[in-house]
Amino acid sequence: MLVMFLLQFMFACIGVQLFKGKLYYCTDPSKLSQEKCVGEFFEYSSGDYYKPELLAREWLNSDFNFDHVSNALLALFTVTTFEGWPNLLYQSIDSSVENVGPINNYRPAVAIYFIAYIIVIAFFMVNIFVGFVIVTFQSEGEQEYKNCELDKNQRKCMEFALKAKPIKRYIPTDKFQYKVWWVVTSRWFEYLIFIIILLNTISLAMKYHGQPSAYEEGLANLNLFFTAVFIVEFILKLMAFRFRNYFGDPWNVFDFLIVLGSIIDIIVEQVNTSADGQPSVNINITFFRLFRVMRLVKLLSKGEGIRTLLWTFIKSFQALPYVALLIVMLFFIYAVIGMQVFGKFLIDDSTQINRNNNFQTFPQAVLVLFRSATGEAWQLIMLSCLNAHCDDKTGETTYKCGHAFCYMYFITFYMICSFLVRN
Q: How many CB atoms are closer than 10 A to CB 137?
């Protein structure tokens, strides 16, 4: 953490030397100095020359700049999150000298500064920091076994040996049943069903809007064929394993549900369609068509490697309740703080504090935080909170009530949520 901060501080100092006072601009792009950026000018919105708009010239600074080290650290932190950094890059390339407006592609070489920062900090140091946190977390979990003579792998082996159970394999004694069992458990039958599932997947992806009726009928016939194949597979496996052994396997139960849902889908579709192809009965068959897509999940039961990955994924959910509790606590605390501090801000649809994005209610605050956690323009929300306005008790006058607390609020939330909790 200290090394990462020192590197960021070093890049911030370099940024101050390169861009200090050079990111100012006039709202009228034809004026390059503050002395000339006075009066008014015409702006043609959307390039419509018949609708000119008279605006006042303003000399402004970039929202993220390098005028001093603290501003440079803030700008570089947004670059670390990969949010809005291309705009800052283009502004820096167009920068010329202090207190002079941008000149197109004046210093393209300064792009090396941002590229080097992203490679060193965003790609390497952030991942090293997250990895260090994970290693520290794992080492803390091993503290309770520090007096144990067995290492972690040996303990896992002992735990597996104690919990292991013998695998039951059903082999029928009846001659005919044994032949059916041999067929459904053979490798070629498994490959055949695998190919059928892949073909069914391709047929599901062949639908498109405005398809001809003959094409649609062909896809419907393909669905009937694939459903018939899966029904035959179900019947053969039920004959081979019998009722008890077949439904004792969770994958077989899942296959049966898919077959049952596919049959209901076909029946409902036939009942719901009249002779002219129009719906005759007001029955929503969207839910039943989901069973066609669920056939893709059958692929998981056809490969040992895929099942291993799925089992690993399921086992990783054992720690999910603790992580979820930590995330809920984090969002709850920050949402309540946001309601208390930013809840009185006026709704302005021209800013990021609008009717869909505000802190006036707890659900809205959680939604804003969730958006910020995903990194979607979180820096713009922070700037809107900085420049927000409030109204007095009468609602007739407004005043600026944004304050610098929003920097600490959003930066700490993003660091905790994105760099630690999500990883």
A: 10
Map tokens 């952030």 to a residue.
126
Q: How far apart are CA 383 and CA 345, in angstroms?
A: 13
Instruction: Examine the pLDDT at 226 and tell me if it is beyond 80.
Output: yes
φ, ψ at 302 (rounded to 5°): -100, -5
Q: Which residues have CB under 8 Å from 156's CB, separation 6+?
A: none
Note whether 219 and 203 are within 8 A (CB): yes
For the cut 60, the answer to whether the pLDDT of residue 8 exceeds it is yes
Coil/strand/helix, residue 254: helix
Cα of first residue to Cα of last residue in the chain, in angstroms, is: 16
How many Å apart are CA 172 and CA 88, to the nearest integer? 72
Give me the DSSP letters along 61-119: E-SS--SSHHHHHHHHHHHHTTSSHHHHHHHHHH--STTB---TTS-GGGHHHHHHHII
Give the Cβ contact number of residue 338 at 10 Å: 25
Strand partners, 286: none
Distance CA 299, CA 207 (A): 21
- Res 1 pLDDT > 60: yes
Looking only at the bridges linking them, the beta strands covering 389-391 and 52-56 are unpaired
Provide, rounded to the nearest whole percent, the portion of the chain with pLDDT above 90: 24
C-alpha–C-alpha distance, residues 20 and 24, integer Å: 10
User: What's at 148, amino acid-wise?
Assistant: C
Separation between Cα atoms, residue 219 and residue 289, nearest integer Å: 13
pLDDT, one tens digit per residue, over 214-224 is 998 898 888 88
Please report which helix (H) or strand (E) contains residue 38, including its range.
none
Residue type present at position 26: C
